[in-house]
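Reading a protein record of the kind used here takes only a little practice. The record below shows the convention in full.

——
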Amino acid sequence: MKVGVFDSGVGGLSVLKSLLEARLFESIVYYGDTARVPYGTKDKQTIIRFSLQALEFFTSHRVDMLVVACNTASAYALDSLSHEAPFPVIGVITPGVLATQNKLSSKDASILVIATKATIASNLYAAKLQENGFYNVKSLATGLFVPFVEEGIYDGKPMQALLEYYFKGFESPNALILGCTHFPLIAPALSAYFGKDTILIHSGEAIVEYIQNTYHLSTHHILHSLEFFASDDVDALKHTAKLWLGNLYMP
C-alpha cells in the first residue's frame, strides 16, 4: 500500500517518522510545500488552494491514502481534499483529540492546545474536545516555534526565551496537545519546561493509532520506497529528513 504524507514544510517529518516506525506501508511519498511555509499565517481560501494543488501532486503519484500532516491544512482544507480525492484523506486533528481522550482518565483534566494562529482560530481542537466532555481547555497560538524548528533551533537560550515568552504565568497542564507537526521536534524542551507530569500528545503517534484502528492495517510491512519532494529546495528537505529520521531514512 502506498501512502502520501503532505505538510507545509519539514514539520510533517515527525508524522513520517511515526509511520515508518509502525511499518504500516510498503511505499511512502512525502511532499513539503517548503516554498510557501508556514500555512498558519495564511487565510482559509489560500490554505485550501495550496492544499488542493498538493492533492494534484499526490493523485499523479497514485497513492492509496493521503495523510495531511499539517494541522492548519487539516483544520481548513480537509473537507475540500476529501471531496476531491479518489482515496481516503486523513487529517491529524481528530486523531489528536482521540489520543487525548485515551490518555486522560478524568474529564476535568486541564488541557493546553498549542498551534499556529490559523489552527487556533479554527477552534477545532477545543470544539472537538468539548464534544467529548473536556471543558478545561485553553488554546494558545505559538507560531514562532515553526521558524525556529525550520531553522534547526530546538533548545538552548533562544528556545528557552521563546518558551518563557509564550508560557510565563501558565500552570503546567495535565495534557499538552502539540497542534503543529513541527512541535514534536521541540518536545524535550517543552517537557523540561512543563515537567514530567504533563502528558504530551504527539500528532504522529495519534495518526498511527487512528489508522490502525480505523483501517485495520497490519504492521511490519517491508518498506520498498521512500520518496521526498518539495516545492523549493528538495535537497534541504532530504538533509533534514536524514537528520531527523536517522536509520529510518532511505535515500
